[in-house]
Amino acid sequence: MTIKRENLPDGGWADLRDPADISERLRRPIRAIQMKLAKDPAFAEVVKAAQAKGAQAVREMDEAAAAQVAAQMGDESAGLLDELNDRAILARVAGWSYGPEVTADALLDLPGPTYDRLKALCAAGALDGGPDFSASQAEDSPTVPSTA
């Protein structure tokens, strides 16, 4: 297992697992949230618009624009996105300087800048292994031709 220690803004630290080392027990709830989000048409529209603008435009989005996007996706999807971020952090953090256990309660008690830094650090690889909705191209697919 690969662990990398990251220093955090408040002077604390977190030991992060490599995304490839995340157990199925920790990945499964993340996939379940991804599936719920994928079913939400309002969320899909927000994602489609963000993809059209490009990653740089999304990174440079100001707070007012981010609030507008959150309103467009709706309360349920915004809540699921928060839960997805929390689960991604809990899946990646193997240990930290904020107590002996890495728990959801402890995570939510962190100062805002520390949480935000962990969210940014843990986003890398968080969606790997998520649902793939593309049509199967495999010749032995039971639905061949799945693209017909």
Describe how the helices and strands are arranged.
Elements: E1 3-7, E2 13-17, H1 24-38, H2 41-53, H3 55-59, H4 63-73, H5 75-92, E3 93-96, H6 104-108, H7 112-123
Antiparallel strand pairs: 1-2, 2-3
Helix pairs in contact: 1-5, 5-7
Task: Provide structural commentary.
- With 148 residues, the chain is mainly α.
- The protein has one domain (3-123).
- It is built from seven helices and three strands.
- It has helices at 24-38, 41-53, 55-59, 63-73, 75-92, 104-108, 112-123; strands at 3-7, 13-17, 93-96.
- A three-stranded antiparallel β-sheet has the order 1-2-3.
- Helix 1 packs antiparallel against helix 5.
- The longest helix is centred in the middle third of the chain and has 18 residues, at 75-92.
- It is globular, with a radius of gyration of 18 Å.
Number of helices: 7
Count of the domains: 1
Task: Report strand order across the widest sheet.
Answer: 1-2-3
Report the count of strand segments: 3
β-strand amount? 5-15%
- Kindly state the mean pLDDT as a whole number? 86
Give unreliable regions as ranges.
Answer: none
The best one-word shape is globular
The biggest beta sheet reads: 3 strands, antiparallel
Secondary-structure element series:
EEHHHHHEHH
Distance between the termini: 43 Å
Q: Which percent range fits the helix content? A: 40-55%
